[in-house]
Amino acid sequence: MPYLKQLIDGYRRFRENDWARERERWAELSEGQSPRVMVIACSDSRVDPSQIFDVRPGEIFVVRNVAALAPPYETSRGYHGVSAALEFAVTQLKVSEILVMGHGLCGGCAAALTGQFDDTAPGEGHFIADWVGMLSAARDEVRSRHPDLGDDAFLEMERQAVRVSLANLRTFPWVAEREAAGDLKLHGVHFSIAEGVLYVLDEAEGDFRPA
Questions:
Q1: What is the average pLDDT score of the chain?
Q2: How far apart are CA 63 and CA 66, in angstroms?
């Protein structure tokens, strides 16, 4: 397992350097966590929220999945991993902000837009297609505006996914209640890998602007 050795080497550097420098911080964290922000980000290896936002251990509570999606509120039996993380962050950790972070060159959003995994079997793209299926309405809108599926279509799909996640978050009763009371704020951002620029969604104007 050659790459495991590289990971262990990296751990040893962390142990000797970062952990030693932040020893007091790690001692505090051994007593518990109290992050103020939850970040919903993509599993993509190029977009690590801790690196992009330059935060210390314990500062953000992160859940990552394909296309950085928040599902709608559902109470059916099943394995609702993102919903469980959201419930824990909002009702137990009592975070005061939730940030949905989409990004450029997102494979999950591309799969939603092109439908490349539609009608595939498990192990061939079925789970991906099923998950990004929550973007189907947004996909239809993007396709109608960009029938040629050029670069603009993929960027719009990525940004629409952020909007869909924010709308889905507001279907959770404890999220909607806390936002209405002013105890919780929701934000959407899009990170451009090619530019290294973070764009922040202004929901009032409906547009993304550079941070």
A1: 97
A2: 10
